[in-house]
Write a structure and sequence with these properties.
By secondary structure, the chain is α+β, with helices and mostly antiparallel strands. Helix content is about 35%, strand content about 25%. It binds coenzyme A. Coenzyme A (COA) binds near residues 91, 92 and 122.
Length: about 140
């Protein structure tokens, strides 16, 4: 398997279809992005959507958002998921390393992410790549 990590540049039906397969593996209750939403995602200069490919196959995705706060430039990694058939071969690690590298290149001083405690593989992956677990409460206000 030769994995390439690429930046998604066009909101194609193929990309939408790949996300329709991958995102439910992250959380089956997540909405599948429409093509219109994908266009908005890829047009947003703060967001980079990375795609892991093996030839024509899309094996996984991850998104990096780089944003400015009054204190510094921060990056947040979102929506990391690898197809169940391609796990355990370093695809997730390659995606997260690419996210970190992109954050570094964009000047971010810190990279954050959130992962549910029940996500065993993810909670092994992130510390392996240098992420430290923070003692902080995560809050969410749902406006939908
Ligand atoms: C978390 C997730 C992205 C990891 O993806 P992955 O491609 O399997 O990740 P990796 O292959 O880099 O690492 C997984 C394991 O394979 C091992 N591995 C990596 N390359 C390997 C290789 N060539 N040979 C054997 N084992 C290998 C890693 O050491 C790791 O071992 P561990 O599970 O004991 O820690 C994937 O499990 C997933 O999509 N889970 C569901 C969604 C999810 O939880 N996403 C995270 C949201 S925060």
């Amino acid at each position: 398997m030769t994995v390439r990590i690429e930046t998604a540049t066009h909101a194609t039906p193929e990309l939408r279809d790949a996300l329709a397969v991958l995102l439910p593996q992250l959380n089956p209750s997540l909405p599948i992005p429409s093509l219109e939403h994908l266009v908005a995602v890829l047009a947003d200069p703060a967001v980079t959507l990375l795609v892991a490919r093996d030839g024509p196959l899309t094996l996984g995705v991850a998104a990096v958002v780089v944003y400015v706060t009054p204190i510094w430039l921060k990056a947040r990694i979102e929506d990391v998921v690898v197809d169940s058939a391609a796990r355990g071969r370093g695809v997730g690690e390659a995606l997260v390393r690419a996210c970190i590298e992109l954050a570094r290149r964009r000047g971010a001083g810190i990279v954050e992410l959130q992962s549910a405690r029940s996500r065993d593989a993810a909670n092994r992956l992130y510390p392996r790549l240098g992420f430290a677990l923070r003692d902080s409460n995560v809050y969410r206000l749902n406006l939908l």
